[in-house]
Design a protein that fits this description.
Order of helices and strands of chain B: HHEHEHEHEEHEHEHEHEEHHHEEEE
Shape of chain A: globular
Strand order of the largest sheet of chain A: 2-1-3
Radius of gyration of chain B: 23 Å
Distance between the termini of chain A: 57 Å
Strand content of chain A: under 5%
Strand content of chain B: 15-25%
Number of helices of chain B: 12
Shape of chain B: globular
Order of helices and strands of chain A: HHHHHEEEHHHHHHHH
Number of strands of chain A: 3
Number of helices of chain A: 13
Radius of gyration of chain A: 25 Å
Oligomer: heterodimer
Distance between the termini of chain B: 68 Å
Strand order of the largest sheet of chain B: 7-6-8-9-10-13-14
Helix content of chain A: over 70%
Largest sheet of chain A: 3 strands, antiparallel
Structural class of chain B: alpha/beta
C-alpha cells in the first residue's frame, strides 16, 4: 500500500519537474533571443489551454462525466477577470497583484457557474451532464453577447441592451455586447501562466491522491458499488466538477487579460471541443498527457505557418489529430511504444548500474586517497 | 481487425505525406516576390527609362491578416485575392516601390490573429513591415493594440468598428465605420422618402451588424422616421427568419433595413417571398456579393437597395480590368471586400512613393511617416471604392456612400 502511494506522488513530482524544466528552458531561450515572436505570443494562451485541459481531465477522466461546456466556465472567468481588473485599476496599482486578484475573481465566477450547473445536474446520471453543459456553454455565450457592463462615478452598471445602458460621460464601458471587452490592459505574463499551471497541478494531484479523490474515482468506476459503501455521490461529484470549473475560470481570466479585446463568441462549442480533444488525445485521466497534448496541439497550427504549407495547415492539423487518435488506439502501436518504453527502462537500468559502479569506484578511490593522505601526514 | 487499423494508420500517414509533397510546389502563391514578375515587367515597362540607371528599388513588406479558413473565410480570401491583384499590378509598373505581400490566416479569432501578426513580424525580420488587416473587427481590435504598441503602420480593408482606430494614431480604415454607415442609411431614407414604417432585422451577436443597427435606429429617431419593429437573431448560421420577418410584417413595416451579411440576407429574402411579404429591403455593404452566390435566385433580390462603395458591374476601365482579372483567377465576381483590399494596396503604395528616404527607414519611422502623411490632409487616393479618398485624424476614411438598386440582376446607382 505504502509503495503504491509513493508511486503516485512520484508521478506527481515528475509532472512538476516537467513543467518547471520547460519553464526554465523557455526562459533561457527568451533570454538569448532565440524564441521567435510568434512562439513567444503563444506562451500565455498555451498555459491557459494546459490548465483548461488538466481541469477538464478532472471532470472527464477522473470523475468520468462528459462535459461539453468547459469553454463556458472559461468565458465566465475571462469576463469577470477583465471586469475585476478594470474595477481595481485604481485601488491596486501593482499589475501582478491585480492579475492575481482578477484570476481569483475568475476562479470564483467559474466555481459559481459550476455550482449552478452542477447541483441540479450531477444528481442525474448518464448523458444528461453532457447535454446540460453543452447548453450552459451556449447560454453563457448568448448572455455575454447582449451584456453591457460599465463603471462611472455613479457606480457599476449592467444592462441587457445598449439603450438601457447609460453611462455618465467619464465612465468606462467594460463589456460592450457583441463587441465584447475592449481596451483591456494586458496584464498576463508567461510567469503568471506558469504559476497557474503549478497551482492547478497542486490542486488536481492532491485532490486525486486524497481520500476524496479515491471516492471520486470509485464513483467513476462503479457508482452503485461506491454508493453501497456510503459514498455521498452528489457531494463528491460536485467537488470534482466545481474544482474543475474554478480552474477553468482562472485560466479564462488569464486568457482574457492577455489580449486587448475578447469577444464572447470566442468561447463557443468549438473551444469546448478543442479542450476535450486535448484531454482525449492526451489520455483520459492522465494529467501529464493533458499537459503535453495541450501544449503541442495548441502550438502545432501556428508552427505550421512557418513552413511552405501554410495554406493546408488546418488540414494537416486535422490529419495529425486523426493520426494520434488512430495511433493511440492501435494495439501494435501501443505494443511498440511499450517496447520502446521497455528499452528506455533497460537503458535507464544500465545507466543506473553504471552510475552505481562509478560511484562505488569513486568512493573506493576516495578511500584509498584519504588513506594515502593519512599515511603521509603520519610519516 | 488489427491489420485493418494498421492499414488505416498507414493510409492516413501516406495522405498527409502526399499533401506535404504536393504543397511545396505551389506554396509560393501567397507571396509575390518581385523577381518572379521580372519577365512581365520588362515587356510592360515602356515609360520607365531609368531601369538600368541604378535607381534603388525599395521593397516594402506587407503583412496581411484575415480569415482564410472557418466561418468567415469568404471575407478573408476576398481581401487576400483583391490585394494580390493590386500587388501584381504595382510590381509590374516597375516603379520605385515594390510590395511583397504575405497573407496569414486568423480564423476570425483574436488570439490567432495576434499569433498571425507575430509570425508576420518574424517573416519581415528587420525589413520595414506594414500591416494590412485584419478583415474582421474583433481580431482587428486585438491586433491594432499590438501594432500601436510596437509601432507598425496598419491599414484595414474592412474592419469597420470605431474601436479599431479608437485612440491609435497608426491604424486606418478603408471602409466606412459602422455608425457612419447607419447614419448615412437613415439620412438616405429621410431624403428619398422611402418607407413610412421601418423594420430592422440585425445580428445582435455581430459587432458589425449591431454597430450599424444601433446608429441607424438612433439617427432615424432624430430624423423623425418611424422604426416600427426591431428584431434580432444571434448568429449568421441561423436558418429560419420567419419570426423576425413576422415581427416586421405584423408591425406593418413597408421597408426593412438589413444591416447584415449576404448569406443570412439571402435566406431572409427567400423566406419573405414564401410568406408573401414584400416590403422594400435595404441593406448595408455586407449585402454586396449576394448576386454572385451559388444557386441564388437573382429574381429574389430584384428591387433590393444597398449601400456599397463598389459596383462590380461598373463601367470604368479600372473596375473592368480588376473584375476581369479577379474572375479569371478565382472564378467568381469580386465583392467590396476584394475592392477594399485592392485599394488598400494602392493607398500603401502611393503613400510610400511620397515618402523621402524610405530606403533607410525601419518600421517605426515608416509608421510615423505614413501616419503623418495619411492624416496630413494633402494625401488622397483614387481607387475602386471611391475617388480622392482621404483620411481623418481618427483613422476613418472619408468617401461618399453610394446607394445602388438591384435591377435585372445588376446594380444600378441611385
Amino acid at each position: 500500500m505504502k509503495k503504491k502511494l509513493n508511486k503516485n506522488s512520484l508521478n506527481g513530482f515528475i509532472n512538476y519537474g516537467i513543467v518547471i524544466a520547460a519553464f526554465i528552458i523557455i526562459q533561457i531561450f527568451i533570454g538569448k533571443g532565440m524564441l521567435s515572436n510568434s512562439l513567444q505570443s503563444l506562451l500565455v494562451p498555451a498555459c491557459c489551454y494546459i490548465v483548461m485541459a488538466v481541469s477538464l481531465n478532472l471532470t472527464v477522466g477522473i470523475l468520468g462525466e462528459l462535459s461539453l461546456g468547459h469553454a463556458g466556465f472559461m468565458s465566465l472567468g475571462a469576463f469577470s477577470g477583465i471586469t475585476a481588473s478594470i474595477l481595481l485599476q485604481n485601488s491596486i496599482p501593482m499589475a501582478p497583484m491585480r492579475l492575481a486578484v482578477s484570476m481569483a475573481a475568475g476562479a470564483a465566477a467559474g466555481a459559481l457557474g459550476g455550482v449552478i450547473v452542477g447541483v441540479p445536474v450531477l444528481r442525474l446520471q448518464g448523458d444528461y451532464l453532457a447535454i446540460v453543459t453543452l447548453a450552459f456553454g451556449q447560454i453563457i455565450k448568448n448572455i455575454i453577447m447582449v451584456l453591457y457592463v460599465g463603471v462611472d462615478e455613479n457606480g457599476f452598471h449592467i444592462a441587457a441592451s445598449s439603450e438601457r445602458f447609460d453611462l455618465a460621460a467619464g465612465g468606462t464601458a467594460i463589456i460592450k455586447g457583441p463587441m465584447g471587452a475592449v481596451g483591456v490592459s494586458k496584464l498576463a505574463s508567461f510567469t503568471a501562466g506558469f504559476v497557474l499551471i503549478l497551482i492547478t497541478l497542486l490542486v488536481v494531484q492532491n485532490l486525486v491522491n486524497s481520500r476524496s479523490g479515491r471516492a471520486i474515482m470509485a464513483l467513476r468506476d462503479n457508482r452503485i458499488a461506491a454508493e453501497s459503501v456510503g459514498i455521498n455521490t452528489t457531494k463528491y461529484k460536485l467537488m470534482a466538477f466545481v474544482t474543475s470549473a474554478a480552474l477553468a475560470g482562472a485560466a479564462g481570466a488569464l486568457f482574457g487579460l492577455n489580449y486587448s479585446s475578447t469577444v464572447a463568441s470566442k468561447f463557443d462549442f468549438n473551444t469546448s471541443i478543442l479542450v476535450l480533444v486535448f484531454v482525449v488525445l492526451g489520455g483520459l485521466g492522465s494529467i501529464r498527457g493533458s499537459i503535453i497534448a495541450a501544449a503541442l496541439l495548441y502550438v502545432l497550427p501556428e508552427l505550421l505557418r512557418s513552413f511552405d504549407i501554410a495554406e493546408y495547415r488546418m488540414l494537416i492539423y486535422a490529419i495529425v489529430l486523426i493520426l494520434v487518435m488512430l495511433a493511440t488506439n492501435n494495439e501494435q502501436f501501443t505494443a511498440l511504444m511499450g517496447r520502446v518504453g521497455g528499452w528506455f527502462k533497460a537503458v535507464g537500468g544500465w545507466f543506473k548500474a553504471a552510475g552505481a559502479r562509478v560511484v562505488g569506484w569513486l568512493k573506493s578511490l576516495g578511500r584509498t586517497q584519504s588513506k594515502g593522505k593519512g599515511g603521509t601526514t603520519n610519516g | 481487425m488489427k491489420k485493418k487499423n494498421l492499414a488505416a494508420l498507414l493510409m492516413a500517414g501516406a495522405m498527409s505525406l502526399s499533401l506535404l509533397a504536393g504543397c511545396s510546389s505551389n506554396g509560393d502563391q501567397t507571396s509575390n516576390p518581385p523577381a518572379s514578375d521580372a519577365g512581365t515587367q520588362e515587356s510592360q515597362a515602356t515609360e520607365t527609362d531609368n531601369q538600368g540607371g541604378g535607381t534603388d528599388v525599395v521593397t516594402i513588406k506587407v503583412g496581411g491578416i484575415g480569415p482564410t479558413t472557418g466561418d468567415a473565410a469568404q471575407y478573408g480570401t476576398a481581401t487576400q485575392w483583391g490585394a494580390e491583384i493590386a500587388v501584381d499590378e504595382i510590381n509590374a509598373q516597375n516603379g520605385p516601390i515594390r510590395l511583397e505581400l504575405q497573407y496569414e490566416d486568423d480564423t476570425n479569432s483574436a488570439d490567432t490573429a495576434v499569433s498571425a501578426y507575430n509570425s508576420l513580424k518574424d517573416w519581415a525580420k528587420d525589413a520595414p513591415l506594414v500591416i494590412y488587416g485584419c478583415t474582421t473587427t474583433a481580431p482587428c481590435v486585438a491586433v491594432s493594440t499590438e501594432t500601436f504598441a510596437d509601432r507598425y503602420f496598419q491599414l484595414t480593408p474592412s474592419a469597420s468598428s470605431p474601436e479599431v482606430t479608437n485612440g491609435k494614431d497608426n491604424v486606418f480604415q478603408m471602409c466606412f465605420t459602422d455608425p457612419g454607415q447607419g447614419t448615412a442609411a437613415a439620412e438616405y431614407l429621410k431624403s428619398s422618402g422611402l418607407g413610412t414604417k421601418i423594420g430592422v432585422i440585425y445580428n445582435n451577436g455581430d459587432p458589425y451588424s449591431t454597430g450599424i443597427a444601433e446608429a441607424f435606429i438612433a439617427h432615424a429617431k432624430e430624423l423623425g422616421l418611424e422604426v416600427a419593429a426591431t428584431s434580432t437573431y444571434p448568429e449568421d448560421t441561423t436558418t429560419d427568419y420567419t419570426v423576425q420577418l413576422n415581427a416586421c410584417k405584423d408591425a406593418g413595416a413597408d421597408l426593412v433595413f438589413l444591416p447584415i451579411y449576404y448569406t443570412p440576407a439571402s435566406l431572409i429574402l427567400a423566406q419573405a417571398k414564401q410568406m408573401d411579404y414584400a416590403p422594400i429591403f435595404f441593406g448595408g455593404d455586407g449585402m454586396d456579393g449576394m448576386l454572385d452566390m451559388d444557386g441564388f435566385d437573382k429574381s429574389l433580390a430584384e428591387g433590393l437597395l444597398l449601400m456599397t462603395p463598389f459596383n462590380a458591374s461598373g463601367t470604368d476601365e479600372r473596375t473592368k480590368k480588376f473584375v476581369e482579372t479577379y474572375q479569371t483567377g478565382h472564378g467568381i465576381l469580386p465583392n467590396q471586400f476584394a475592392a477594399d483590399g485592392y485599394d488598400c494596396m494602392y493607398a500603401i503604395y502611393e503613400a510610400c512613393c511620397q515618402i523621402d528616404g524610405i530606403a533607410d527607414m525601419d518600421h517605426e519611422q515608416l509608421c510615423d511617416a505614413l501616419s503623418a502623411l495619411f492624416t496630413g490632409g494633402d494625401f488622397s487616393v483614387d481607387g475602386l471604392t471611391g475617388s480622392a479618398m482621404k483620411w481623418l485624424t481618427t483613422g476613418e476614411v472619408s468617401k461618399a456612400p453610394v446607394v445602388v438598386k438591384v435591377e435585372g440582376g445588376v446594380y444600378v446607382t441611385q
